[in-house]
Request: fold
Amino acid sequence: MSLEDADVQQLAVQFQEGSREALAEIYRRWSPLVFTVAHRALGHRADAEDVTQQVFVAAWKSRHTLQPSSTALPGWLVGIAKHRIADRMSSRARDLRLVEHVGSSGEPDPVDEVYRVVDRVVVADAIDQLDEPRRTVVLLAFTEDLTHELIAQRVDLPLGTVKSHIRRGLQQLRTRLQEVSHAASE
Reply:
């Protein structure tokens, strides 16, 4: 083992035992490596700086898991860095989805509101045109969110009949909505 390897191993042992001086030396030696790995992966200096800080805080908190050797310390730090980088990328993706959601849920478009109202009226009218017990079965399924079994019990019909009423009711609703949509586009 070279003098440098022995020095790194001794530093790792001191770090594992809780030496703040060892932490400072480890940070001095390997923070540029951790920063470079983070910066290349994230492409953003501030994120790379945050990840670098998080890596050394996490290393300090979990120093008891380090197996001191001359080569383990830098690899261990890079491994922690990879996990923190993945966390940051996940956080970015969540933030992006949130921004897209907030951006898309701004003020409602009055024209869209009119169409939604019209759609509700057309659906309500189409449901009213269904024969009984089909109308009741469809309403129970979609307004009260009941299972087929519960609907069958409530309306005292066989389960297969309830399923048929729902399927055929939806087909009738779809046909009616297509007719209205086709008439509106003319």
Observations:
- The mean pLDDT is 85.
- The helical segments are 3-16, 20-42, 45-61, 72-104, 110-128, 134-142, 148-155, 159-185.
